[in-house]
Amino acid sequence: MYRDAEEIEREKILLCETSSSEHKLSVAPEIDIMEYCRKEWRGNTPVAKRMRKGYEAVAQKFASIRRVRGDNYCALRATLFQALSQATQLPSWLQSEDFTMLPENLLSKYDWIKQWQLKQKLGRKMGEISDEIKDYLILLRKKWKSISEIKGPTEKQEACDKLFKNEEEEYSLYEALKFLMLNTAIELYNDDKNGRRVPVFSWLLFARDTSSNPRQLMHNHLNHIGHSGGLEQVEMFLLAYALQYTIQVYRLYKYSTDEFITLYPNDPEEDWPVVTLITEDDRHYNIPVRMCQETML
After folding, report:
1. Using CA atoms, how far apart are residues 290 and 276, in angstroms rounded to an integer?
2. Alpha carbon distance 50, 265 (integer Å)
3. Which of 46, 82, 192, 222 could form a disulfide with 275 if both were Cys (CB 3.0 to 4.6 A apart)?
4. Span 37-94, pLDDT tens digits
């Protein structure tokens, strides 16, 4: 269902072919969205026609697109890039005093979390896992804070571009997001077991044979994100809840249906910020940028 090694390598070459200085660029420079569409969808098949119609609809709101590297982290990458690009303050959950104690607290309750897979490394001791994830969470807060404090849009964008050229830091941030998703899943699972109200997607998340509880979710899904698989649709809901962001996605292959613009979650909190992504297939995500003036007004 997701991208094999050869396809990922082709994607990297596409992103890097413009110049050697962009060798590690995870989010390509922006190009006109209809120019991109014409290059990608030249044929007259029903699929190509639908994609062009979808891009035309997106172009009513956004002038440009930025291509995201497709290495099974792309949903996390696109969402985090958009969130940081428009960040003006540190989210309340990042300001919590016990935020960085999350790994230690969870590991003290759930021994199975020591089997968390960090960046393709296995066999760590529990303390090492806790310390490493804590470092990732500290990095996430540090980067979010520093970028949100930048006032000028050009400078903010440059800071985001710089961060997403630093592979070591970038992938550490994705591990932080995955751990926050696990924490959110544990909270939702426990809330449901204790008779509290939970969002509908939580039932769907734990209704799968492969994730009937948080431990299975970690083993069969979260541990594979970025390695052998990306985010499934129900996990897009989980990511949105973990970040307390609404993720709005233009699903181009669903053009002319009610699912063309999908919100994760579909009943978001009013005060949650919104980030916008584009997908052609619910596997790979790109970023629309430069909102049209008419839309802004």
Report:
1. 11
2. 25
3. 82
4. 999 999 999 999 999 999 999 999 999 999 999 889 999 999 999 999 999 999 999 9
CA atoms within 13 A on the CB side of 42: 2
Catalytic residue check, 284: yes
- Exactly one of 131, 191, 284, 292 is catalytic; name it: 284
Pairing of strands 31-32, 246-251: unpaired
The question of whether 37 is a catalytic residue gets the answer: no
Tell me the β-bridge partners of 261.
Answer: 250
**Can you read off the two tokens belonging to residue 213?**
């509880």
**Beta-ladder partners of 286:** 278
Among residues 71, 160, 221, 282, which one is catalytic?
71
Model pLDDT for residues 112-124, shown as the tens digit of each residue: 999 998 765 544 5
Q: Is 71 a catalytic residue?
A: yes
* DSSP assignment string, 1-52: ----HHHHHHHHHHHHTT-GGGTT-SBPPPEEHHHHHHHH--S-SHHHHHHH
> CA–CA distance from 40 to each of 4, 47, 278, 279 (Å)?
20, 12, 14, 13
Residue type, 82: Q
Q: How many CB atoms lie within 10 A of CB 208?
A: 14
Give pLDDT tens digits for 207-237.
999 999 999 999 999 999 998 899 999 999 9
Prediction pTM value? 0.89
Active-site annotation holder among 74, 160, 221, 282: 74
